[in-house]
Design a protein that fits this description.
Shape: globular
Strand content: 15-25%
Radius of gyration: 17 Å
Distance between the termini: 34 Å
Number of helices: 9
Number of strands: 12
Strand order of the largest sheet: 6-5-4-7-8-10-9
Largest sheet: 7 strands, mixed
Length: about 250
């Protein structure tokens, strides 16, 4: 992805990031820069519904900076969390700083210019509670971020309360082969959200103690999350139920 051309466009009060094509790689509503504008980015934060501990996550790894939507949201709404952000392209980092209000690095935010797959393989620091993967090239290909070895390395970097969140949009031959690799890695402890209107499919995988959440409790958590952060996942919860992803009315992961 070296030398990727960066384009910025604006429409209807929203600023968009492109990698030299029409594909939208990130977006920010200019008057609400810390909101999650794109539906799939909101769903990637659904881990906040799945872990009840108010101190979760303590450590997070974000692979793929894009327009810095997830980074900004977590920096603002998860003050207890120390984040490592890995981005392969220096030009993307520069664009995020210039056009998308990326916060300055501080004791809670460290940004690394590196290949995400190699970083996952080689990083030897403390485990992460939350790993979010949203990395694509200009042709919507994930490359080394969509291999069995990568997912196995990710599992090895997760804490006992760990969650992996992956944007599967644009993977070759649809998302099912990618999802199959995640299922194999996490012993079927995987949940794929129904496809967004944009075609994105967000998958979650879990380690540690089983998650078993009745729909009523899930909706209560979604209401509290909306009150606390403005992030509205109530429609996502309803879509999960309508898609048959919560047999017996209990979400298990």
């Amino acid at each position: 992805m070296s030398g990727t051309p960066i384009d910025i466009s604006e429409s209807g009060g929203v600023r968009y990031l492109h990698f030299g094509s029409d594909w939208v790689q990130g977006a920010m509503r200019i008057r609400r820069p810390y909101d999650l504008e794109l539906a799939y980015t909101r769903e990637m934060m659904a881990g906040l519904l799945l872990r009840a501990d108010s101190g979760w996550p303590r450590r997070a790894l974000l692979i793929g900076l894009g327009a810095a939507s997830l980074t900004k949201f977590m920096h603002r709404h998860c003050p207890q969390c120390q984040m490592d952000v890995v981005e392969i392209e220096p030009s993307v980092l520069a664009a995020a700083r210039q056009f998308f209000r990326l916060p300055a690095e501080d004791e809670r935010l460290s940004i690394h210019i590196a290949d995400g797959a190699k970083y996952m393989e080689n990083h030897a620091g403390a485990p992460y509670d939350y790993i979010l993967v949203d990395g694509f090239d200009r042709n919507a290909r994930a490359g080394g971020l969509d291999t069995l070895a990568f997912y196995q390395a990710a599992r090895g970097k997760l804490s006992a309360q760990g969650l992996l969140s992956v944007n599967l949009f644009g993977r070759s031959k649809g998302y099912k082969a990618s999802l199959g690799r995640i299922i194999e890695t996490f012993d079927d402890r995987t949940l794929a959200f129904p496809s967004c209107d944009s075609g994105n499919v967000v998958a979650f995988a879990a380690t540690g103690e089983e998650i078993a959440l009745p729909m009523e409790e899930l909706r209560e958590r979604a209401c509290l999350l909306k009150q606390d952060t403005g992030l509205d996942l109530l429609a996502t919860v309803s879509r999960l139920e309508a898609a048959g992803s919560v047999p017996g009315g209990v979400l298990r992961l």
